[in-house]
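Collaborator request, handled under Task 6.
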Amino acid sequence: MKKFIPTMATGLLLLALACGSQEEPAKTKKVTPQEVKEKTKEAVQAAKTYAIKQKEAYQKKLDAATESMQKQIDELKAKAEKAAPEAKAKLQEQVKELQGKLDTTKKKLKELAAATGKAWEDLKTGLNKSMEDWQKAYEKAKKEY
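Structure tokens returned to the collaborator:
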């Protein structure tokens, strides 16, 4: 009898828990094709907005970089004016090369403003390469003088 009461109490407790925890399954809301279409449209618009903001930020970054590059070229020009004749000629040649690379970069930057989609990605890759080439040429010129 001593074992019967705790066993019976445990059984009743389990029965009460089992009966009390039965919940009705969650009802799922049916999604209409129109709702799917609207959500898709919103997602596409959000992606476009994000892409435009990324492009604008990239363009601002490159605008600032090209301004800085022009200042660096101007500094090299000033050094060339003060350099000895042989060094001056070499430095002026390097300045001319740097200016040409910068002009190419600026041209690509203008093309970037009008580009979209895949063309934008291709131009971005080309601009990054132009910037790297310019930086290498500048470092070389700066190191020599």
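The cover message to the collaborator said: "The mean pLDDT is 82. Residues 44-144 form a domain with the Single alpha-helices involved in coiled-coils or other helix-helix interfaces fold (CATH 1.20.5). Please let us know whether this matches your experimental observations."
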